[in-house]
Design brief:
Layout: H1 26-29, H2 32-107
InterPro entries: Cgr1-like
Protein name: rRNA-processing protein
Function: Involved in nucleolar integrity and required for processing of the pre-rRNA for the 60S ribosome subunit.
Amino acid sequence: MAGKSVVSGKPWKASKAAYRRSGLAPTQKTSYEKRMEERRRVQEAKDREQKLRDEKEEERSAHAQKIRARREAKAEKERMELLQSKFHQKVIDRRRRREKRNKMLKER
């Protein structure tokens, strides 16, 4: 015999099948091209997911920035109104004091 035969040649022996190496890692069972194709598909899916996450985060941050700007504008407007009312009140108070002083001078 030139090579090893799977059949023993003895009629009472069961014929043997080729040995299946089940202990091999899954990467060793598949070809390199298949592994690279699977890796490429997984990477493309991850890239798509990351792109969607980035777009969602960008929308969320833009919305938050818009809210922040609106709040700052509102706070500035309230501050200016308060200052205007204070300045107006100061003018009123100054006039009252002046009138009071003039009234006292007239009564002398």
